[in-house]
Amino acid sequence: MRKTILYVEDNPDNMLLVQRALEARGYALLQAKDGETGVSMAEREAVDLILLDINLPDIDGYEVARRIRSSGKSGLAYVPIIAITANALKGDAEKALAAGCDVYMSKPINIRELWARVEAFVPTDGQPTA
Question: Fewer Cβ within 10 Å of end Cβ, the chain: N or C?
Fold first, then answer.
């Protein structure tokens, strides 16, 4: 069964890059262009992992993570969230983790690192867990 990943990202170039990279590895990708849409999709769809940009046009990724973690949807509090952001200031990683993200990755996106991080949480069928 294909694993489903929700990517909350407002930049179409980043979205396309990640879409191609993950679909090449057999993942299904759901796309949300803003935080509110991301939260509602996470609550509506069955997702195995969430990739989350921090700088979004409506609510920031920290708030998205907090809303997802406090959602009434069973199990959503435990879905892994990987923050992917250009924010590289001291304390940004800690802020993302405090909001409920499991991992913090910086942009520009390194595809090999992305694959490794995603597969550590949701291995594709036939691959061992990390």
Answer: N
